[in-house]
């Protein structure tokens, strides 16, 4: 590089560094706060302000939006006076973690597929929860003589329906897993979204916030109220031996839970998709690292839960009208497990 060009490059680096420092301090932000807004590390901000490296074009555009200035203001200023001696070499940031570029087309396709996947996966989860209802109700009604079927026939019909519902749910899970496989990197890798993607996703998220809040509230309310049908069954049965009323109560409870979980899973998946693109919430770069470490633990944990659920149900350790309690217990336990693991990693 000729000396004049070398001087000019060095001058522009210093001007940009000074502008970043000045604008950051005027907004009252620390280096860490600015780093969070830009989705980079604090070390990157320190390098930019120390003129040890320069941000790429996307980061320049992002800073102009965050600071409320033009890119010309950041880049096209008069150069600082020349300094004697060798100029500082221009060094560009190289992220420690792999970064994947996401175009506007990729972002739109991802959100569209996630919306469809959220509906299908939520429906599949609901089918799994609903699957034992017929077995519980029909078996009880057969014992009471309400349905003209033998206990063996009732159990056979109910198990066929149960297996068909579970098979349909598994098919939905597999289909959506294959469809979303090209976008697995969204959860795993650090993202560098193209110009306009961030604004588009934030606008969609803002428009969806009301629906997300309503669905989460309704879903949680249904899960909380899910015990009401059992209490109603107990009241109607009284001191009588009408066990089928309790069976209907358990069926109602599973229906409440199924509808509540349908809403929660449906909205959580789509909300999570927007968080993935924005690298917010559970999908910040720090959390992604934790998530990658938790993948093996999650796989082993939920496979074990499924094995326990099927084992205690089919072996008769707990009847189907009671074995469903495994799932809420497993869900709460997994939340506690992940929280404990996160605390332990932070202490290290």
Q: What features would you describe in this structure?
A:
Helix content is 74%, strand content 2%. It has 15 helices and two strands. A two-stranded parallel sheet has the order 1-2. It has three domains: 3-75, lambda repressor-like DNA-binding domains (434 Repressor (Amino-terminal Domain), Orthogonal Bundle); 104-283, no CATH class; 285-348. Mean pLDDT is 78; it is low at 1-14 and 78-96. Helix 7 packs antiparallel against helix 8 and helix 13 runs antiparallel to helix 15 (326-347). The protein has 348 residues and is mostly helical.
Produce a short descriptive summary:
The chain is built from 15 helices and two strands.
Map the helices and strands.
Layout: H1 3-26, H2 31-38, H3 42-49, H4 57-67, H5 71-75, E1 99-102, H6 104-130, H7 133-143, H8 151-180, H9 185-188, E2 190-193, H10 197-224, H11 228-237, H12 243-278, H13 285-314, H14 320-323, H15 326-347
Parallel strand pairs: 1-2
């Amino acid at each position: 590089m000729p000396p004049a060009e070398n001087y000019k490059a060095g001058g522009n680096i210093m001007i940009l560094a000074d502008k970043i420092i000045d604008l950051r301090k005027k907004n009252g932000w620390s280096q860490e706060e600015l780093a969070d807004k830009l989705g980079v590390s604090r070390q990157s901000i320190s390098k930019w302000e120390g003129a040890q490296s320069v941000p790429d074009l996307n980061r320049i555009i992002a800073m102009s939006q965050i600071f409320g200035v033009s890119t010309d203001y950041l880049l096209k200023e008069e150069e600082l006076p020349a300094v004697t001696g060798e100029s500082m070499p221009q060094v560009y940031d190289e992220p420690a973690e792999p970064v994947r570029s996401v175009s506007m087309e990729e972002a739109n396709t991802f959100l569209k597929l996630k919306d469809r996947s959220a509906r299908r996966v939520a429906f599949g989860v609901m089918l799994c929860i609903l699957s034992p209802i017929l077995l519980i109700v029909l078996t009880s009604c057969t014992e009471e003589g309400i349905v003209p079927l033998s206990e063996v026939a009732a159990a056979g019909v109910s198990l066929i329906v149960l297996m068909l519902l579970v098979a349909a749910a598994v098919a939905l899970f597999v289909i959506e897993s294959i469809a979303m496989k090209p976008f697995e990197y969204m959860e795993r890798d650090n993202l560098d979204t193209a110009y306009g993607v961030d604004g588009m996703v934030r606008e969609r998220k803002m428009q969806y916030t009301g629906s997300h809040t309503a669905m989460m509230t309704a879903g949680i309310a249904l899960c909380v109220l899910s015990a009401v049908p059992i209490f109603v069954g107990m009241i109607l049965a009284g001191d009588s031996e009408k066990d089928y009323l309790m069976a209907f109560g358990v069926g109602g409870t599973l229906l409440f839970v199924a509808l509540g979980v349908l809403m929660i899973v449906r909205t959580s998946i789509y909300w999570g998709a927007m968080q993935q693109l924005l690298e917010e919430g559970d999908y910040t770069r720090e959390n992604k690292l934790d998530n990658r470490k938790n993948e093996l633990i999650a796989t082993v944990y939920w496979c074990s839960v499924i094995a326990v659920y099927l084992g205690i149900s089919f072996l008769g350790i707990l009847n189907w009208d009671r074995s469903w309690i495994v799932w809420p217990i497993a869900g709460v336990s997994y939340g506690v497990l992940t929280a404990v693991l996160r605390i332990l990693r932070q202490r290290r």
